[in-house]
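Try it yourself: sequence plus zinc ion, in.
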Amino acid sequence: MPELPEVETTCRGIGPALVGQCVTGVRVRNSRLRIPVPDELAQRIVGSRLHSVRRRAKYLLLDFGGGSVIIHLGMSGSLRVLSPDNAPDVHDHVDIVFGTHLLRLRDPRRFGLVTWCAGDPLAHPLLAGLGPEPLESGFDEAYLFHVTRGIRAPIKQVLMDARKVVGVGNIYASESLFRAAVHPLAPAGRIGLRRYARIAAAVRETLNDAIRAGGSTLRDYVGGDGRAGYFQQQYFVYGRVGAPCRVCATPIERRVVAQRATYWCPNCQRR
Ligand code: ZN
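Structure, out:
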């Protein structure tokens, strides 16, 4: 699944090729995504110039001045910049043509979305209730401490709650808590400022490492027709049940927490 680092890398990959270009066409081959692609999409953006591409949580926001196209990659989506004569695959559902370039959404499972927002996209119902960005300054120990008082849910579940902080998916929550040496089942309301400082730093490091790993795939977002650049990384705990901890060699444990597989080292991570 594309996580925050993949979406950030996509944003950095497609922006330089497309910002400043005018839309010359829209082709919707299958509008049945998580929410239907609006019929008026072409009417809204053909002839408009792309002002910027930015990311909020796992949404990409294409600003056309008079409104924005909001894109989410869902479970399996990817965006690429191709030449306009590139033949579509069966899963290539939406093309936005910018003269000599084309932005193509491929989404085999169709949990992604492409929609139009006339006003401020940050106020759109999809985005309005989202918590802070983990790589921006509002995400720190004081914030985490404040929003977790009285919460008995495990810290891992809280990190994955987009109302508390966006973009920390299942893999990155487990990996961040390992780096912070905090047990994923520790009740969030019992964690103090000192440990929250370690958690905030670990979340940033984990995401930034993944973005750096993705940086090497940036060129794949422009040209070529390879598959989506979901980053292959070496994980500390994720997916490693029974394998020796990379720090202390204790076997990694696994339990399903809030329907998600959760991994930790019972020696390195403390409740
Ligand atoms: Zn360990």
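One thing you can check immediately is this: The first helix runs from residue 4 to 18.
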